[in-house]
Every structure is written in structure tokens, then in C-alpha cells.
């Protein structure tokens, strides 16, 4: 819905009466909302990738009456599209058997893609495989501008979440430097909205300068979590600022009064990509800016936001960039660093106020369950970083709404709805995976066991209706929903982690919390089946690697029992503690197996355990962190 080139093709072809006439005369034309029906998008995207070697949106696929794909591609200019419509129709009419045979070949090929090969030898999970994967991955690092060594550049938050986790435990300074440099470059680039907060979909260049300007809920939710964890890792205040500004963007432009969030903002406004976000020199020169007794504020603003050759884009437009060295700029303008930051805040408010008078980009007002679940996790991570209670309140309100409005009595979820409408239609594995993950995040941030119960119910339903009984993996679609021409599994991680990898991470963590060894074993077994594929291209398996990190090293459990459990938990959650199971209970009224025989009246104890052995319980956060660091 927010894709610039989708709108271009819509204007050029689908709204062109001549082109529409050709289409309607020869084809049954179906327009699919990719966000509403990711299952349809998934099978036809795979088909187009198989046919052409590449994919993307707009996605155009020609199918037989039974739904099997025959030909496809992405963006077609109008004259090419018209020519294709006529030629493909002629081919189908005059070469029917050949067309049917080609569709057979594509369908057979699709049924083999992204399925687990049960004939492949099972690999054991150890740290050497993780290290080998990262060493190969390093060859694709851009250690100058961050991210991968090619364009376009996508943020891929889960990649950097894993790499930060790996750097923390391995002590690999090259990986650590790459991750932090990437976060710095993205945060100062045009991909980040320097005025309003929030990240665009991706950068078309290697320096994160020129984005495609659409803003998606799922990108920003994951990036809030990533920057929050990076702040916990090294205390860089810029990362915390990005978290707060991006949450403010979500609450200002995507959040509803019900506590859930809309899906996306368009790249275009007034039919022009990026018009809402870019500036001309004339606009900057005529806007009212705050006064300062010692500083030429207009020149300062131009220097700070690179309204110069560095920030120039096209058609007299500038993309605002962040300042890479605030201290140097403060020295240049003769002001203290803290005064510079105050002045920047005032300038930002003035520019943002002026920008808000423009015609806004289009809003996709769908409520998507999986994306909102990611935002619940983001609110929890922002809360853990900052302890701002409003973030946790938002997370609780959102989860309560989703469970009340997008879930049936039997536990079936609904993927998509619009505020005011009753949710209906199918749901997908991603909904169960990310909702259960969000509910675990809520438990971790509150120690309220009702969230664990809801997570357990959600996972149990997914196991019942999405399981692949042969491999132990999971199908993307439910056995209750109408079948497409091909049923697929989502194994490889992408911009959003694969639904199978996310659910396996959930099975491992939730199984550990609940003492369900069947679930933890299943997560390990599925990972072992695909482990041989991982070293070849780590970027496509980063969420699997997060799981591998938890399994390859003996798991650390931190269990807090006693009246101060929540207060101690709040302090511990401020730390960077990747791959650690954190649980707490204040009163002993719990059925969770982690707390058995761990309560002493009126005393709060912190138990740090690894594998099947525990240290003697301690009472102070400092002693607990010393034990955790010694284990790490």
C-alpha cells in the first residue's frame, strides 16, 4: 500500500482506459493487498523469483484459472505492459498445452523451495558453526558506511540484533564496531526522519542518504527494539534519543485511541515521492527559526542538517541528515555542546511544525496483528531501557485490544482488521509467532503470569493447526483455511524474521519458562535440520542464529523470588542481557516450575543458574550481575 512504484504503475497502466480495456477483455484482474494476504503474496512472489531470478513490488503474476502461475514480473512501463498483455494472451490461446506444461514445471519447482530437506544429515548445534557463519558474513560488511557492501540497503534489524548478541558473547570487536557503525550511519542518514523520528523502508544508495520514503510499522517496531538494546549495550545517548523519537513518531502518526497502530505511511504525497519530507533552500530561508544571541541560527541549521551539497538530492530538494560530530559543530559556532543540543531541539520543533502544514502522505489504516505484536515488543524494550511507565502502559493496552478483538474463543487469530469492523479472514503463522513473542516480552517486563498463559494458549493453537508432521516445522497457513495452489513454509529470515524461526525461538524460551521439554526439544530439532544451510548466508538466518546462540552456550536463567522481585527485575532489565531467561515472582503464588522451592518469607533472592546447576542465591543486583558476567 505504501510502495512508490506500485503507485506509478497504478497511474500509468491500471488507471489508463486503453490499458484497462486490454486487461478486462482478456483477463480476470485481481488486485491483492499484500499486507492483508501475505500468503497469496508469498506463493506468487516465489513463483516470480523462480521465473526471473528476482522479485519485489509491484508484483504482477499471470495465472491459469486454477491459480497456478504462468508468467510474472515486477514493475512494467506502460508500453511494455500493453505489449505483454497482448502477447501472453495470444500465447495462451494458441499454445495451450505448452502453457499448461510450463505452469506444471513452475508449480513443481515451487513445491521444493524453502522446504526442509529431511534427507540431509542433521547437524549438531555448537558455537563453531555460529563463528564460521559470522566469519563468512564479514566479507559482506561495509565497514565504512555500515550495513551490507551493496545498494540498496535495508535496515534488517534482526541481523544487527544477532550480531550484537554475538559480539557481546564472543568479544569480537570487528563485529561490534560494524554493528555500532551501522546504527550510527543509519541514525544520521536520510533513511531516518531527523525531524519527526522513525525510519523509512530502505536506502537506494550505499550511504543511507536517499530513502524510499514509506514508513512501515514493522520496520520501526524492530528498530526501536534494536536501538534500545544498543543503548543498553554501550550507553550511547544518541541511541536512546532515536528510540524516544521513533516511539513519538508512532504515537503521533500511527497509533490509534484503542492502543493499536496503523500499518504504514505512503512514500508519496501529492503524487510525488518524498515531497512531505524534503526541503528547498527557499523554504529554509523563509521559515521562522528561534533566535540566539551568539549564533546565526539559519546558517547553523543548514550546517547541522546538511542543507548543502552533502544533503542535496534532486530538483532543488534537500534531504535532512544528522550531524555526525556535534562537538566539532559546537566549537565551530562557539557554543557549549549542551546549548547546541537545546538549540537543535528548538529548530527541530519549528521545522516539524512547518512540515505538518503540508499535505500528508497517505495512511494505510489496516490493523495487522503480527506487526502490532512487534510493536508491543518494541514498547516493552523501550520500557526496559528507560523505565518510562507510559511505554509499558501502551504495550499492555495494545495486547489487551488484540486479544479481545482479533482472537476467537477457541484461540484462532485474525490477521487484519480496520477499527470499527469485526475482524475476519485467515491468519498466518507470523501472527501466532509474533503475538506469542510479544506476550513473553510483556511477561519479562511485568512478571505478570497471565501473559505467559496467553502465550502458551497461542503456541498450542499454532502447533495444532500449522504443524508439518514430517519435519516438526510449521506451515505458513492453517489447515482450517482454504488452500492455495502451493502450501509453503517460511524458513529464511528477511526484513521480518521468518515465522518458523520466530516460533522456534518462542518454543525454546516459553518451553524453558514452563518446563515444557517437548517444546524446547522441538525447537532444537528444527534448527538442527536446517543448520547446514546457515553458514552459506548468515544474513538470511539471523533469527535462527539467535536461537543457536541460546542453545550452543548453556542457557542462563535468572530467577527472582520475593517481595522486591519486580523492583529488582526493573533494574536488571536496564542491562544488556541477551539470551537470558528472566523470571520473577513476589508472593510465591505461582505454578511456574522455575520458582519451586525458591521462596523464603520476607526475603528477596536472585538465583542465577546455568544448565542444571545454580549458584548460591544472592540478594543484591551487583552480586547477581557479577555472576551473570562470569557466566557470559
* Radius of gyration from the alpha-carbon trace, in angstroms: 26 Å
How large is the share of residues in beta strands? 5-15%
Q: Biggest β-sheet: count, sense, barrel?
A: 4 strands, mixed
Task: Kindly state the percentage of residues in helix.
Answer: 40-55%
Low-confidence stretches: none
Structure description:
The chain is of the alpha+beta class. It is 50% helix and 8% strand. The protein has 23 helices and 15 strands. The strands form six sheets. The protein has a four-stranded mixed sheet with strand order 13-12-14-15, with helices on both faces. The longest helix has 19 residues, at 337-355. The protein is globular and about 80 Å long. The two termini are 44 Å apart. The mean pLDDT is 94.
List key phrases describing it.
632 residues; 50% helix; 3-stranded antiparallel β-sheet; 23 helices; 8% strand; 15 strands; globular; 4-stranded mixed β-sheet; alpha+beta
Amino acid at each position: 500500500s505504501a510502495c512508490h512504484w506500485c503507485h506509478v504503475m497504478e497511474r500509468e497502466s491500471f488507471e489508463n482506459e486503453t490499458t484497462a480495456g486490454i486487461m478486462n477483455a482478456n483477463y480476470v484482474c485481481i488486485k491483492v493487498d499484500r499486507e492483508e494476504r501475505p500468503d497469496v503474496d508469498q506463493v506468487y512472489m516465489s513463483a516470480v523469483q523462480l521465473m526471473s531470478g528476482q522479485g519485489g513490488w509491484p508484483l504482477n503474476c499471470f495465472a491459469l484459472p486454477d491459480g497456478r502461475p504462468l508468467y510474472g514480473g515486477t514493475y512494467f512501463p506502460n508500453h511494455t505492459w500493453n505489449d505483454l498483455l497482448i502477447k501472453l494472451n495470444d500465447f495462451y490461446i494458441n499454445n495451450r498445452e505448452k502453457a499448461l506444461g510450463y505452469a506444471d514445471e513452475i508449480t513443481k519447482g515451487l513445491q521444493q523451495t524453502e522446504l526442509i530437506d529431511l534427507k540431509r544429515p542433521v547437524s549438531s548445534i555448537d558455537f563453531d558453526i555460529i563463528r564460521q557463519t559470522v566469519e563468512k558474513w564479514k566479507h559482506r560488511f561495509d565497514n565504512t558506511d555500515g550495513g551490507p557492501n551493496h545498494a540498496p540497503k535495508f535496515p534488517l534489524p534482526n541481523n544487527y540484533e544477532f550480531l550484537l548478541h554475538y559480539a557481546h558473547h564472543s568479544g569480537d570487536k570487528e563485529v561490534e564496531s560494524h554493528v555500532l557503525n551501522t546504527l550510527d550511519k543509519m541514525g544520521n542518514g536520510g533513511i531516518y526522519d531527523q525531524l519527526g523520528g522513525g525510519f523509512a523502508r530502505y536506502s537506494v544508495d550505499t550511504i543511507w542518504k536517499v530513502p524510499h520514503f514509506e514508513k512501515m510499522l514493522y520496520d520501526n517496531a524492530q528498530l526501536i527494539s534494536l536501538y534500545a538494546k544498543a543503548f543498553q549495550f554501550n550507553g550511547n545517548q544518541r541511541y536512546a534519543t532515536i528510540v524516544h523519537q521513533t516511539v513519538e513518531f508512532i504515537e503521533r502518526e500511527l497509533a490509534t485511541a484503542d492502543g493499536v497502530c496503523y500499518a504504514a505511511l505512503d512514500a508519496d504525497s501529492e503524487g510525488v515521492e518524498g515531497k512531505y519530507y524534503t526541503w528547498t533552500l527557499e523554504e529554509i530561508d523563509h521559515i521562522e527559526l528561534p533566535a540566539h544571541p551568539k549564533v546565526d541560527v539559519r546558517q547553523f541549521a543548514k550546517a547541522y542538517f546538511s542543507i548543502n551539497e552533502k544533503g542535496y538530492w534532486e530538483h532543488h530538494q534537500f534531504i535532512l541528515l544528522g550531524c555526525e560530530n556535534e562537538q566539532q559543530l559546537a566549537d565551530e559556532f562557539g557554543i557549549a555542546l549542551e546549548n547546541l543540543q537545546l538549540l537543535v531541539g528548538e529548530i527541530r520543533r519549528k521545522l516539524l511544525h512547518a512540515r505538518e502544514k503540508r499535505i500528508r502522505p497517505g495512511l494505510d489504516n489496516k490493523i495487522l496483528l503480527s506487526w502490532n505484536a512487534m510493536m508491543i515488543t518494541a514498547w516493552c524494550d523501550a520500557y526496559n531501557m528507560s523505565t518510562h511507565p507510559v511505554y509499558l502502559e501502551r504495550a499492555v493496552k495494545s495486547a489487551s485490544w488484540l486479544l479481545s478483538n482479533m482472537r476467537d474463543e477457541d484461540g484462532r487469530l485474525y490477521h487484519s482488521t480496520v477499527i470499527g469492523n469485526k475482524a475476519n479472514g485467515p491468519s498466518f503463522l507470523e501472527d501466532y509467532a509474533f503475538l506469542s513473542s510479544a506476550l513473553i516480552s510483556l511477561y519479562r517486563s511485568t512478571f505478570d503470569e497471565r501473559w505467559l498463559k496467553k502465550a502458551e494458549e497461542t503456541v498450542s493453537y499454532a502447533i495444532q493447526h500449522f504443524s508439518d508432521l514430517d519435519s516438526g516445522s510449521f506451515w505458513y497457513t492453517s489447515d482450517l483455511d482454504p488452500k492455495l495452489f502451493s502450501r509453503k513454509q517460511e524458513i529464511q529470515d528477511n526484513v521480518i524474521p521468518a515465522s518458523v524461526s520466530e516460533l522456534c525461538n518462542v518454543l525454546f524460551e516459553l518451553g524453558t519458562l514452563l518446563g515444557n521439554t517437548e517444546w524446547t526439544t522441538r525447537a532444537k530439532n528444527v534448527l538442527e535440520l536446517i543448520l547446514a544451510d546457515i553458514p552459506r548466508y548468515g544474513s538470511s538466518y539471523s533469527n535462527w542464529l539467535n536461537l543457536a546462540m541460546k542453545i550452543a552456550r548453556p542457557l542462563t536463567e535468572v530467577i527472582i523470588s520475593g517481595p522486591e522481585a519486580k523492583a529488582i527485575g526493573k533494574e536488571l532489565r536496564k542491562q544488556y542481557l541477551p539470551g537470558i531467561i528472566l523470571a520473577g515472582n513476589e508472593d510465591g503464588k505461582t505454578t511456574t516450575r522455575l520458582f519451586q522451592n525458591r521462596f523464603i518469607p520476607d526475603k528477596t533472592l536472585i538465583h542465577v543458574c546455568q544448565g542444571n546447576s545454580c549458584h548460591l542465591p544472592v540478594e543484591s543486583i551487583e552480586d547477581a550481575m557479577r555472576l551473570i558476567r562470569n557466566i557470559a
